[in-house]
Amino acid sequence: MPIHSRALHFPLPGHPAARIRYSALLNIPQELSAAMSARHVDRRLPVSGEGYSNLLPNGFSSLWEVGPRTSVYSEAVEGVLEAAAKEFAGTEEMIRPGEKLFGDYEWERFDLLVLPPSFPYGGMDNPRMVFLTPTVIKGDTSGAQVVAHELAHSWTGNLITNKNNEHFWLNEGFTTYAERRIAEAVQGKDRAVLSIGIGWRGLNKEMERFKDNLEFTKLKTNQEGVDPDAVYSRVPYEKGFQFLWRIERQAIRIKGL
Predict the structure, then answer these.
(1) Global pTM value
(2) I need a labelling partner for 61 at 20 to 30 A (CA). Which of 48, 204, 235, 243 fits?
(3) Has 150 been annotated as catalytic?
(4) Which is catalytic among the residues 150, 184, 206, 238?
């Protein structure tokens, strides 16, 4: 399974079943505010001798409130913060339908941190603060689809998740399903159907990619001795979605639920 978390200066468990809680004491100039995926507890004057923290990225501009639960942060690059705020202005309109579908949003805040272009993922869910690459800012609000996916992780992934990476589809398959239910509620059925079609095309490409190694076309895979990054694909996302969508069509919505 991926070991990226172990690259930090303190040990972290290597699988998603082992959760940890953390707190941080940050020393920062009085005119600045700290931003992290945690609840702000208190602020006091710094005490001499406590040391210096470099946990926060340098050069980040101030926040832009886009909703009662959401602020956007970005690099101090001209135009980025404003463009991100416009792209993700409808975030609260996604959170509310998500709550109607899946229950209360348990994390209080849903802030968005736009990182430098070198950030290697489209988005990464963290409770309370999502990390995003600026490349998802399109200027037409279509980048909100990535935010919808990370928002869906607030229920499927951050509240309950898979035991290990061999069951990765339980995280991403359910999240892709939840993302498209939210998108349908906010953007309409046609937009959701388009997303499903794009996902189906991507799944077929992955089937071709793994035609000589069918183990990684399965939902539950055997990854013993395998680097998960080497076999990462859309299969857990899209095949997992197709499985859940089939159940929905045959057993749930057909009954009017």
Answers:
(1) 0.85
(2) 48
(3) yes
(4) 150
